[in-house]
């Protein structure tokens, strides 16, 4: 197992900055250590006339089109959080203040790798309080058209992701992974977000993808990958979908369950999470004792 027994935060603050994928603005991101029991909290530092704190919870989700967006009761929002959330999930970070001076996280290279490197740059601080997991007790499934997602009981988090695109450059791909920090680093973290060329034009017409470029996304046109450097993995597309799934699931905290998705996306990921929590007998909170944890230290520092 790769489950972690105790809560954790960062050893020190760490900073990055860059261009938003959709908004096109330059934003600055600061990850700040937080006390036990804080959870993950976004703080919009550019807003001071109303509540600028947005706790990370499934019911804070107000947008799932093209990215995951959270909002608070004061209508303060933060978007494109999934890549950072995936890095926090794999690293086992429970408590963090995430300061941002704009509406959207910087895209950086379009993957989670830069966020993982930030975490590894300062290191992880283990805290005294026990970590609280969501243990899945019975199968939950949701579907929309030919898209499908299911979560089954399992002693650890496992992901099984399948995509199927008509574009020959993408096609049908599948990845299975236990997303501990080592496998996440080696297999998912550097997989970049992607879009089809015709989608990019539509997104830009809708006022989105203003900051999108070959520097932060893979662009596909039919059977051709347009990025001059090509792909980082032959199946980079499905790896990124698994990355997104990991990040979206972490809005509900660390989960013990096996998650299967077919032709999924942010909307289906959120539907699955909400369906799970709306079924009281399908899950329970648990903490893990010493006899339940093997290689916990390795999973944090590998």
Spell out the blueprint of helices and strands:
Layout: E1 6-10, E2 14-19, E3 26-33, E4 40-44, E5 53-55, E6 61-63, E7 69-71, E8 77-79, H1 82-91, E9 96-100, H2 113-122, E10 124-130, E11 133-136, E12 140-144, E13 147-153, E14 158-164, E15 172-177, H3 181-188, E16 194-196, H4 197-205, E17 218-221, E18 224-225, H5 236-249, E19 255-262, H6 266-277, E20 283-286, H7 296-301
Helix pairs in contact: 1-2, 1-5, 5-6
What does this protein look like?
With 302 residues, the protein is α+β, with helices and mostly antiparallel strands. The protein is built from 7 helices and 20 strands. Strands 11, 12, 13, 14, 15, 19 and 20 form a 7-stranded mixed beta sheet that branches. Strand 2 and strand 3 form a beta hairpin. Helix 1 crosses helix 2 and helix 1 packs across helix 5.
Give structural attributes.
single chain; 302 residues; alpha+beta; 7 helices; 20 strands; 32% strand; disordered C terminus
Compact summary:
It contains seven helices and 20 strands.
Mean pLDDT across the residues is: 93
The count of β-strands is 20
Beta strand %: 25-35%
Which residues form runs of ≥5 with pLDDT under 50?
Answer: 290-302
Largest sheet: 7 strands, mixed
What is Rg? 18 Å
Oligomeric state, counting identical vs distinct chains: single chain
Task: Sketch the topology as an H/E string, one letter per element.
Answer: EEEEEEEEHEHEEEEEEHEHEEHEHEH
Tell the overall outline.
globular
User: What is the tally of helical segments?
Assistant: 7
Alpha-carbon distance between the termini?
Answer: 14 Å
Helix share, percent = 10-25%
Coarse structural class: alpha+beta
